[in-house]
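user: can you give me the structure for this one chain? tokens are fine.
assistant: on it. calling the predictor now.
[tool input]
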Amino acid sequence: MTTADIARAALARSRRGPRLWFAAGALVLVAVAVSLGMRVNPWADSGFAEHRMPSRTDIPVSIAVTRDGVVWFTIELSDTIGRFKDGRIEKVPKGRENLEPLGLAAGVDGSAWYTDSQLRAISQVSGDGSIRSYDLATPVARLGRLAVAPDGAVWFAEPTAASVTRLKDGVFTRYAVAPRAGAGEGSAGPFGVAVDAQGNVWATLPQENTLVRIAPNGEIAAFEPPTRQSSPGDVAVDSRGAVWVLQQAANKVARFAGGRFEEFPIPTPNAGLMALTVAPDGSAWFTELRGHKLGRVRGGAIKEFALPRADARPVGIAADRAGNVWYADLTGWIGMLRADRATAD
């Protein structure tokens, strides 16, 4: 089951209506149903602070934080990209409506890079709001996650081309990682992408239960998690080079290091694992769409943090340099868990 499938199934149960890969129509109804208010912190001592989106129909999806602390996020079914800066939410016009805006990462220069399936492009938004797009030159584009390498190259999952693709100096280079090039929805294409400090690119193939490594010289290696049909989704790399993977169908988080996997079951059954990030202290964080929680793996132990609202649907997650953990909530909120609470036992 893919990330999109989890979102669709979880929200369909509430009878709010179907949508495409990310169940966007249902999410609009969820967002409209949420009570109004620009900011709220119902658990004053919990360490959570939440910020309501300006419009009741805004659906934040992916989230990333730049080195200078600016929080960027994509918005489903919107012609803008979001930014949280100086204590307020801003919406930067991008010229065309988003659809399934799953790929987002902070650039090395304070900008943000994002996938744009509707435009069939990879785009960069700068701090001044200017946007530059790079055309994929394909008739159809279905895009997964995106990551920025230490050298500034942008890597992204391109399921419609069955490849993990690099954008560097305006040039696209595709690395085939799945057997059915050009396959559409339901293909064995990649989803998650991360880059380590040595320039190795890590990607997941949910349908094939595979973690892939693309070495700097282009050599590709594949690794299979112990749990069969675990549907590996999002992926992240910590400062020691360990690779963390969400196993969506198995309801587990896996750590791959030294050539072996270690798997950690999530305490909440059927939690709806959606996104993954690594904090400065090396702990891995993830979102639980159905569990209405954030989760943390540290020292081999999992701790879950219930969100302030019972109807929360956390999807995107990112950690800033201070250790604060940010998340995007489909019901129309951008939230943060303070570093002191995030690092507490």
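assistant: here you go. The chain has one domain: 3-342. Confidence is low (pLDDT under 50) at residues 1-43, 180-186.
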